[in-house]
Design goal:
Blueprint: E1 15-20, H1 27-37, H2 45-56, H3 63-74, E2 85-87, E3 92-96, H4 101-109, E4 117-123, H5 130-141, E5 147-152, H6 161-177, E6 184-187, H7 211-217, E7 231-239, E8 242-248, E9 253-255, E10 259-263, E11 267-275, E12 285-287, E13 291-296, E14 307-310, E15 316-327, E16 333-334, E17 338-343, E18 346-359, E19 366-367, E20 372-373, E21 378-391, E22 402-407, E23 410-419, H8 425-438, H9 447-454, E24 459-465, H10 471-484, E25 489-491, H11 494-499, H12 515-529, E26 533-537, H13 546-553, E27 558-563, E28 575-577, H14 579-583, H15 585-598
Helix pairs in contact: 1-3, 8-13, 10-15, 12-13
């Protein structure tokens, strides 16, 4: 037991703590006092510093303890910065420290250090200064949730309660304006050791916790195994007849028999086995921090970058999100420029859609009306990726909520994802389809069984083109031909949905808010799930709506048959028919059937073309 009455630390998990405050506000003194009052100093260190002070005629300061340790670190005497630690009866603490904002931001944003709690230091004599506001903003930037404000140097204001409560009221109002809440305000004198480890006899008006008691009230970071399951795929290996999906489990746990959904591809499979180098006693579960390989009961095509998840806790899938970014590139990070974002095992091109706030990292001052940031600056911005990307908010799962930015093969920036808003209609459809498929109740008849019985895979044939080119007649003839050859075909006209499922909507607004496409896509999904070849035309949809319909019926393919006499057809249709070709129904239908046969959508045992 130490001289301060604390027992040796129990088996509590180490907590990472950051102390934010100007050096003149007593930060070094506070750290030195925390270490001394918890018996966390190296043996003889206190006496050594006191002897030096006596020899030099100086008054001993607790800040000298931290200075001495940092000097040793610079000389390579101690092992690393984790030597700056202290311990309470509950658990050990590690102080994450940095000489300046730039280094601290860089470490925090890029994941080199993840502080779980913060002490924010304010000088009672100076009051709330601009620097104090910057420190508060810094914690907001990093998404810190567990914050306590330490009002230091109370001895310089004669332990006046009125001074303390004035600072508390002013700073609370400021933090609230940013959505940051301090768990406690603690009046202390680090120099005198008041309200650090022991209660102050000079501030009996304060009944709250000491600094150490407050720290012990902070909650440990949620263990990764208790978080939602995330397994980013690093590679797919083929051994014998097995396809082994390999990667590192970043969070959560899963077991054999669990159905997993791969994001953003939205494909599903069931874990059949967990592969290890051990031939015997193979595990039946996997959990966070393990590098594993799994096989599935179904053969599905997934690849590096896909993230295996459980239906109960899906990740975010979108193309647009908000982030805090620290930039280290030689060239400016600029709006409109293309960069590569690396998030878990995903590599996707992206661009800055909007600078919400550009910040000088040294002063934390806002740089107004700026569409770029220079080296060592910080930005709150909105990124847009070229294709869907999977992630979690940094505050929810840090491992899948942080990323790096690459510019011309160099890692030039790091960021944490703070929020997202599905700004585009395609994002909304993707999220809806993901939720629906995650909760879809399957019957006992599988798609493969239907395909074998029907003689064809499910598909959607969408006939597009300008009005008056004969799309409707061609669609009807194609449905009839498939039907007479014993295929499950159905002509799904958008107007039928409009007067049926859409009858409750304002018909003047039916096509303006995406609801027409959504209802059409959901009906089509039911037909393709039943194994049908669904045929429709674009008479009631714009060409841009096709990608939304495709999202709603994935993984069923859409085959676009475009009727046009233009030399360069719009988009990428699978089959192009001139207006004259489309008018010859027998020839046009045969051309479509040949394509379906060639692509193995019509699989063989039913057709007699």
């Amino acid at each position: 037991m130490g001289s301060n009455g604390h027992k040796e630390p129990q088996s509590g998990k180490q907590m990472k703590l950051v102390i934010v405050g100007h050096v003149d506000h007593g930060k070094s003194t506070l750290v030195g006092r925390l270490m001394a009052d918890t018996d966390s100093l190296p043996t003889g260190k206190m006496d050594f510093i006191k002897d030096i002070c006596d020899q030099q005629g100086k008054v001993f300061e607790f800040a000298f303890l931290l200075d001495a340790l940092e000097e040793e670190q610079e000389q390579g005497i101690t092992i690393d910065t984790s030597q700056i630690f202290f311990k309470t009866e509950k658990r050990p603490y590690v102080i994450i420290d940095a000489p300046g904002h730039k280094e601290f931001l860089k470490n925090m944003v890029t994941g080199a250090a993840n502080a779980e709690a913060a002490l924010l230091l304010i000088d009672a004599y100076e009051g709330v200064q601009e620097q104090s506001r910057r420190h508060g903003y810094l914690l907001r930037l990093l998404g810190m949730k567990q914050v306590a404000v330490v009002v230091n140097k109370m001895d310089l204001v004669k332990h006046d309660a009125e001074v303390f409560y004035k600072i508390k009221a002013e700073y609370t109002e400021f933090l609230n304006s940013m959505g940051v809440e301090a768990r406690e305000y603690i009046p202390v004198s680090a120099k005198m050791g008041e309200n650090i480890a022991h209660r102050s006899e000079n501030m009996t008006w304060y009944q709250g916790p000491t600094v150490l008691e407050m720290l012990d009230q902070f909650e440990d970071k949620l263990p990764e195994v208790n978080q939602p399951f995330r397994l980013p795929l690093q590679d797919v290996y083929k051994f014998d007849e097995r396809r082994i999906l390999a990667g590192r489990v970043e969070s959560g746990t899963a077991k054999i028999g669990d159905e997993v959904i791969f994001a953003p591809s939205n494909k599903k499979g069931t874990i059949k086995s967990i592969e290890t180098w051990e031939v015997e006693n193979k595990p039946t579960t996997i959990e966070a921090s393990q590098s594993v390989g799994i096989t599935l009961t179904e053969q599905i095509f997934v690849e590096r970058g896909d993230v295996a998840t459980l239906a109960s806790d899906p990740p975010v899938i979108t193309t647009t999100f908000d982030a805090n970014v620290f930039w280290m590139g030689k060239k400016h990070l600029q709006k409109g420029e293309t960069y590569l974002i690396k998030l878990a095992t995903q590599n996707v091109e992206c661009e800055v859609a909007k600078f919400n706030k550009a910040i000088d990292a040294s002063t934390l001052e806002t740089l107004p009306d700026q569409d770029f940031i220079a080296k060592n600056d910080v930005a709150e911005l909105t990124l847009r990726t070229r294709q869907p990307i999977t992630f979690d908010l940094f505050n929810d799962i840090a491992e899948t909520g942080r990323f790096v930015l690459v510019d011309e093969y160099d890692v030039c920036g790091g960021g944490i994802i703070t929020g997202f808003t599905p700004l585009s209609e395609i994002d909304k459809f993707r999220d809806e389809a993901h939720y629906r498929d995650s909760h879809w109740i399957k019957g006992a008849v599988t798609p493969d069984m239907r395909a074998y019985r029907n003689g064809h895979l499910a598909a959607m044939i969408l006939i597009t083109g300008k009005s008056g080119v004969g799309k409707a007649d061609l669609a009807g003839k194609l449905e009839e031909k498939l039907f007479h050859q014993n295929f499950q075909s159905y002509l799904l006209d958008g107007r039928n949905i409009q007067v049926g499922l859409g009858a409750d909507m304002d018909q003047d607004k039916y096509f303006t808010d995406g609801e027409a496409v959504r209802r059409f896509g959901e009906v089509a999904k039911l037909f393709v799930d039943a194994g049908h070849v669904v045929i429709s035309t674009s008479n009631v949809f714009n060409h841009e709506d096709h990608s939304n319909i495709s999202l709603l019926i994935e993984p069923t393919p859409i085959v676009e048959i475009q009727v046009t006499s233009d030399q360069f057809p719009k988009g990428k249709p699978e089959v192009v028919l001139t207006v004259d070709e489309a008018a010859n129904h027998e020839t046009a239908v045969q051309k479509v059937l040949d394509y379906l046969k060639d692509k193995k959508i019509l699989t063989g045992h039913n057709y007699s073309i």
